[in-house]
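Late entry, written up from scratch paper. The run itself happened at the end of the previous shift, but nothing got recorded in the book at the time, so transcribing now.
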Amino acid sequence: MSAPVVEIVAIGTELMLGETIDTNSAWLGAALAEAGMPVLRRTAVVDDFDLMATALREALTRADVVITTGGLGPTHDDFTREVVASVLDRPLEQNDDWVRVLEERYSQRGIRMPENNLRQAMVPRGGEVLFNPRGSAPGLWIEHEGRIVIVLPGVPVELRTLGEQTVVPRLRARFPDAPPVRSIRVRTTGVGESRLAEQVADLITAIEPLDVAFLPTLAGVDIRITARGMPPAEADAALARAESLFSERIGRAHFGRAGDLHPAVLGRALQARGWRVAL
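Output as recorded:
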């Protein structure tokens, strides 16, 4: 089975006001690409019932897997559950198992559970609760007309825990033949983007079907080289060959790979020569 089309609907007015950076979508994008299911579109929307419903409906017309993030809290401004239930035309039903989980957690802390936490146990009919060990809102997994709707909390530590422990493993099992998307970065400094593109223009064609993108930074220009739709061993070999070709062509302007920083690279070079720097 080929890779599914995956979309994210990121929910929260705080995202649109610039108060919160959407690290959830970034994490999901990286984790799902490694699993062979790259996210092809992300839609961000404010906490508005109609706009949220429209975003979800549109995503379901394009994607095999739609993941929503945010809007699962116990307060009046958290209504992703209601939106999902409305769009899928499934009534919300109380999940007694999750009610017991919540009651036990509050009991262990010696605190009375607020009544509004019961909202977090409401599940669209036929949906499966995904156990959340880090918070009071479970994730949801809903099979709907050949598509999968995954509803995740917006608190980053909760989303990542659910992603690592449940969502990504289940999607891997569901789409076992999806080849991973792998990338490397060739980091350069001291050469402008336009000049660098001219310098390696023929190599871009030579390494097809790998994709090449130029990413300017304050430190210089990174060249990202990506393998898609290839078996892991073949992808690794192709990327290694591409890195060798590009680094040789670029020469001294090439200073490292993804994650390498100027000070660290310079420090390693000085250590290799037995040199010291006094400030």
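The longest strand covers residues 39-45.
(Scratch paper discarded after transcription.)
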